[in-house]
Amino acid sequence: MGDAGMDTDVVIAGAGATGLMLSCELRLAGVEVVVADRLAGRTGESRAGGMHARTLEILDQRGVLDRFLAAGERQPVSHFSGLWLDFDESESRHAYPLNLPQSAIERLLEEWAAELGVRVRWLSEVSGIRQDDAGVTVDLSTAGAAPTPLRARYLVGCDGGRSTVRKLSGIAFPGTPATMAGLLGDVRLPGLPEDYIFMRRGPGGHVSVFALEPGWHRVITSEFDRLPDRDEPATFEQLRESLFRLVGTDWGMCDPQWVSRFSDAARQAARYREGRVLLAGDAAHIHYPSGGQGLNVGVQDAVNLGWKLASVVRGEAPDTLLDSYHDERHAVGARVLRNVQAQVALVRPGAQTDALRDVFASLVEFEDVNRYLRGMLTALDIRYPADGDHPLAGRRVPDADLKTHEGTARLHELLHAARPVLLDLRGNADVAAAAEDWAGRVDLVEARSEDGHWPVPGCGEIPAPAALLVRPDGHVAWAAATDGAPDTAALRTALTTWFGAALPR
């Protein structure tokens, strides 16, 4: 889009998975974006190991999931603190974790972003931020050169746990400090027993090992009551020594691709928005990497924020819409921190923890407990605050099979353009009339559900609705039950709340 006096609409600091996903969301909405990163380029470090069901659904909603499925490996189970969780295929078309290193995820996202016109400015670090009523000036610095000011409507910090954007914006980062030292590395393990099962706990901590690409394993060591020096470079020898301390062997570990350190520090930004500056991903929340949730939460932050920020930039919705980003995602981030802290508590050494794990392992055998934990890890059960008492209100919409005038379609396919969809499943004239007042902003789709009931994680199977308003991020803003006339006054309120005032006739 671009405005007079603006160099771009949005500056995104950080070209990791969160920043790249946000750039794609903005470009799909026609918003101009600059992505800046302090690094010289991709490091090749694998870091996060994959994606959960809700993130896979999001990529499916945008029509790019096949690229990721072709590069990754589907897994039949996940875990909560090393206790196995099964998946229910009725809950999602993608009810499985996808093993795929973060380096591959970022490569695929960057390729998609480039197709949409995004180019990353490497060696460009945010060094100054100045806000005013019209926009924000972002100083980008490169070693040995004077800062270059860049004028934009908004700035989004996706620049990691040590976020410069967060610090320069004066946003507090409260939480709990580290109580353990962790190391992880991608290595070859020629001596690993064939019957090795994922995790071993010992008196000082625990070791986790899982397969990555053929011939390569991810090794993770966690030693409690050893505080890490975050500024000390992690080394292969340190990882080897940690393995010997914990399990008495290194299984012939060799050929390290990379080694990094982490801890169980858990912190969350006090607010995700400060005027024209917003935070997403690790810039907004950090935690121990249990359950593989970090990258997934960041990508989901980006998809929640992207369409809202685009609507505001285009002048369709008021600036206050951005407050809902904090309201919705801060609560999700807080829940993630709590479940991760619970997972850390379940792996601490000691007889009391042993007893707790035994009890917890028994509980996980109950399907209701298994369902609750997998819903939390996968984010399939997230329900944002929403008006109305329909069970779909605020939840992510199921990928139902539909029959439209053009033929059959999946509901998630209707979201490929990252636009809101008003889905009329009963041919109601009042629903169609409401859509006319938001023509050009909301897509009206008339269809019929192939199934009489839809599975919804968190509340079981429900009757297929008569109509529903789906936000671009796949969450339901309004829904009408099959019995009775749709509450079109509530529909118009939802349309106004999320997509701005009706167009003048």
Automatic annotation (TrEMBL):
<dbReference type="InterPro" id="IPR050641">
    <property type="entry name" value="RIFMO-like"/>
</dbReference>
<keyword id="KW-0503">Monooxygenase</keyword>
<keyword id="KW-0274">FAD</keyword>
<keyword id="KW-0285">Flavoprotein</keyword>
<dbReference type="InterPro" id="IPR036188">
    <property type="entry name" value="FAD/NAD-bd_sf"/>
</dbReference>
<feature type="domain" description="FAD-binding">
    <location>
        <begin position="7"/>
        <end position="339"/>
    </location>
</feature>
<dbReference type="GO" id="GO:0004497">
    <property type="term" value="F:monooxygenase activity"/>
</dbReference>
<dbReference type="Pfam" id="PF01494">
    <property type="entry name" value="FAD_binding_3"/>
</dbReference>
<protein>
    <submittedName>
        <fullName>Monooxygenase</fullName>
    </submittedName>
</protein>
<keyword id="KW-0560">Oxidoreductase</keyword>
<dbReference type="Pfam" id="PF21274">
    <property type="entry name" value="Rng_hyd_C"/>
</dbReference>
<dbReference type="InterPro" id="IPR002938">
    <property type="entry name" value="FAD-bd"/>
</dbReference>
